[in-house]
Sequence to fold (131 residues):
Amino acid sequence: MIRNIWSVLCRDIITDQESNTVSYIRCIEEGAAAKLPARIGPVLLGTLWEKTDKEPETVAFRVVLESPAKKQKVVLQSRPVVIDRTRQRLQFRINALQLTEFGIYTLLVEFNQEEKWKTAARLPVLIRPVD
Fold:
């Protein structure tokens, strides 16, 4: 089984080749729009996962955008990925997020190892009108 240690939504991800350290640049937790509908993107999702079993595990990932009215739309779905290390960083590019109302949107980070999708993280993003 795997579990999500953390997830972060940002504009840029930089990985240092020598040290293998990662910088998550311009993290996103809030935004503003003059009018709606609006589109933001591309955005990047950085995640860290931990595997509890010794054997490699095959996992699919997806990201669901939930509107303030609780309408959900899948904005990204991966092919199955083999996780063979105890800890695994994964990065996902989301091309666009369509915003149709002001309020708190939630990005649901989900994974599937069997037949049912499980929510691993919930990332709230406030979209407010420009003052």
User: Anything to note?
Assistant: The mean pLDDT is 95. The radius of gyration is 16 Å.
